[in-house]
Amino acid sequence: MDTRTATPIPPARQIRALHTASTITVYQAYACALGLPAAREGRFPAAWKRERMTWVKPSFLWMMYRSGWGTKEGQETVLAVEIRREGFDWALDHACLAQYDREAHGEQRDWKRELKRAPARVQWDPERDLHLRALPYRSLQLGLVGEAVRRYADEWIVGVRDVTPLARRVHGLVTAGQLPAARALLPEERVYPRPEQPRHGSRSCLRP
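RESULT FIELD:
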C-alpha cells in the first residue's frame, strides 16, 4: 500500500464534530413523546427531566450505534442539537473523566471528589464505522448534570432538528451495500479546536 495516500488514523482521543464559528452539533435520541416536541419547538418539553444527567455525543455514527439507527426502544427519535460553542467549551472546562485514570487523577479519592462536584463528565468510547464496528480511536461523550443541564436546556441551544429520516436513509444505503452514497450523507465532522487553557482544573480528561 502507498502510505503517502493512506488516510491517517486520528489520535486515540480527539473531538470531531459538525461545527461552525459559533456552534457545535451534538446528538441525542429520545422516545417520540420527547423527541418530536423538542424538534418542533426547538427546545426540550416540560416532561424532559432536568434533574437527570444527560449525555450528548458529537459523533453521528456513535449515536447510530447507541440508538441502533433510531430503532431501539425509547430512542426512536434522533435529534441533532445545535448549541453554542461557548457553552460546550464551558462544559469541557468544568469536566471530569467519567472513569478513574491514575495518570490523570493520582489518588482514586481525588477523582471521586472531583467527579462529585463536576457539572460535566467526559467519556471516551470507540468511534464507529458505517457498519457500526469499533474503530481504533475514540469519540467523545459528554455527560451534563446539575448546573450544566440547566445551562444546556436554557442557554446553549440554538436549534433542534429531527435527523431520524437521515438515519434511516444512511442505514438503508449501508444495508444495500452502497457505502460511498451512505458516506456522502454523513454530517461533516471536523476536528474541533480545543479551547484555550482552561480557567478551572486541567485538560487531563481531553489529553490525546
